[in-house]
Amino acid sequence: MKEFELRAKAWLDGDFDQETKIKVRQMLAGDPAELEDAFGKNLEFGTGGLRGIMGVGTNRMNRYTVGMATQGLANYILSHYDGDDPKVCISYDSRNNSKEFAKITAEVLSANCIHVYIFDNIRPTPEMSYAVRLKKAVAGIMITASHNPKEYNGYKVSWSDGGQVTSPVDKEIVAEVAKITDPSMVKFSSGLRCGEIEAMGSEVDECYVRDLLSLSLSPDACRRHSDLKIVYTPLHGCGVRLVPEILGRLGFKDIIHVPEQDVSDGNFPTVVSPNPEEPAALRLALEKAEQTGADLVMGTDPDADRLGIAVRDDKGKMVLMNGNQTASMLTYYILSRRKELGTLGEGKYVVKTIVTTELITDICKSFGVPVYNVLTGFKYIAEVVKRHEATGEFVCGGEESYGFNVGQFVRDKDAQVSSMMVAECAAWAADQGLTMYQLLQKIYKEYGYRKEGLVSVVRKGVSGAREIQQMMIDLRANPPKDLCGSPVTKVIDYLEPEKTGQPSSNVLQFFDEAGDVVSVRPSGTEPKIKFYFGAKGNDADAKIEALKKQFCK
Predict the structure, then answer these.
(1) What is the chain's Cα-based Rg?
(2) Among 200, 232, 259, which residue terminates a domain?
(3) Which partner from 215, 411, 431, 502 sits 20 to 30 angstroms from 493, CA to CA?
(4) How far apart (Å, rounded) are the C-alpha atoms in residues 169 and 215?
(5) SS3 of the chain: helix, strand, coil, percent, to 5
(6) Is residue 188's pLDDT more than 90?
């Protein structure tokens, strides 16, 4: 009998619920490939937590794998926390089983004598980050798989600053979770509860909204343009709770909903994937914009940390903005407005990830504001904010994958504050007689046109992994001498932390004389290598295509 079959049979004999055992029997009598996928290995608790397909098995998100992860986290907290009343905040999104997984997480923590604050209903990931800081908790847990398809769920851990765990804490937690090898090692029973479980609700919402509104830079412009027509969709997720309220409290009176997508539903019935990066996800919102003559479209993902937008071009057509464009416009707006208000003094800074557009760097340079470049992932932006908390002020930061944040209240990407800033930016632009689209063209005219592109090259299997590894070896041994004919002037190898000042990471960047950049990064979780292209100049579109041919042969 094979190992995965033995693992499955163990679930028939162990302390598992009857529904699970019935499913295991069905799987044992069914497709061996399905059984192997479910029991062939343990669902890996990585540095970002858990993420996987929901279902029965050791390689699935279910009450038992969630319980094991929580027991490992509890053990880590209890062995590293100096106080006598450790607290953890828990939130969850609209995905199927999110509420159940959150409840199990709370019960396991409570059984380990850890005080739990759990939201009374779905809440965004950034509000969980905010709650950790508000409640002075040692950690936070968000049950979400962000914008992944409906079959997935996940378990994301943040630390006491509200930011996602980073080194060395992340690896230490992973090591503790790895020690929990069987569900019998988990303190599941609520009868063993010795830590209080306390509900959080509207009182935290009000604090969160109040603090976000305190970041407003153009309240008068918002009132002057209160008739701005904004279509908003939460894509069946958490954003419906607070985004419309925040926009309304800013003064905007014409918030147009997409009713069928206001319904919180983990099956995401109106979209293939609830990802605002994908045009198809915003199809209904764009249709609503055409029906109503709206000026602006906004869409947030299920846990409301990412924001996608669309604006009208000069021909009256709705066009989607990508993450680089939105982050650039918001950075320009925020720095411009703070300069006008006289609040852009010494110590202010912006953070972006290394694969995010260099247009942000150019904008910040013109305002005399330093930019910190960090590895891919918003947790590294939060890490910079934490490091400079006593000596500087984080103005804003973003990444090309539709994440952005403003101010220091939240230590994660936040679609609530991003929505607020986009609406404000539109009102501020309108004061100047500009649409959002025209504002972007103005930015390009001032700093030069930039275009970005991303290509993911998939190489499956063991041979594919070797091929990806060889690509990186070859690029290090023989880096390109030019990008589209422009000489390469700088190469950054992020495997050299002593030179980059960043954690070691298998990433290469090539910069040329013309202002173009290519970043190469193998995926840590999938059989693919990603090529990020950034080109500058009126011929940027053509250069992007040429760079794709140069690197993705």
Answers:
(1) 24
(2) 200
(3) 411
(4) 31
(5) 45, 20, 35
(6) no
Would the pLDDT of 525 be above 80? no
Beta strands 50-53 and 87-92: pairing type? Answer: unpaired
Structural domains of the chain, count: 3
Query: pLDDT tens-digit profile of 40-62?
Result: 999 999 888 999 999 999 999 99
The set of residues, in sequence order, having a beta carbon less than 8 Å from that of 132 and lying 6+ positions away, is: 89, 139, 140, 158, 159, 160, 161, 162
Residues 488 and 510 sit within 8 Å (Cβ to Cβ): yes
In a domain, 188, yes or no: yes
Pick the range with the lowest mean pLDDT from 19-33, 203-217, 412-426, 517-531: 517-531
CATH number at residue 463: 3.30.310.50
Task: State yes or no: is 190 an active-site residue.
Answer: no
Please, are residues 215 and 128 in contact by the beta-carbon 8 Å criterion? no
Does 354 reside within a domain?
A: no
Query: Are 436 and 466 in the same domain?
Result: no
> Residue 316: left (phi > 0), alpha (psi -120 to 50), or beta?
left
Which residue in the list 91, 110, 129, 146 is annotated as catalytic? 146
Do 189 and 255 fall into the same domain? no
Is the model's pLDDT at 84 over the cut of 80? yes
Is 31 within the bounds of a domain?
no
> Does 24 fall in a domain?
no
Q: What is the pLDDT of residue 189?
A: 67
State the CATH number of the domain containing residue 309: 3.40.120.10
Span 417-460, pLDDT tens digits: 999 999 999 999 999 999 999 999 999 999 999 999 999 999 98
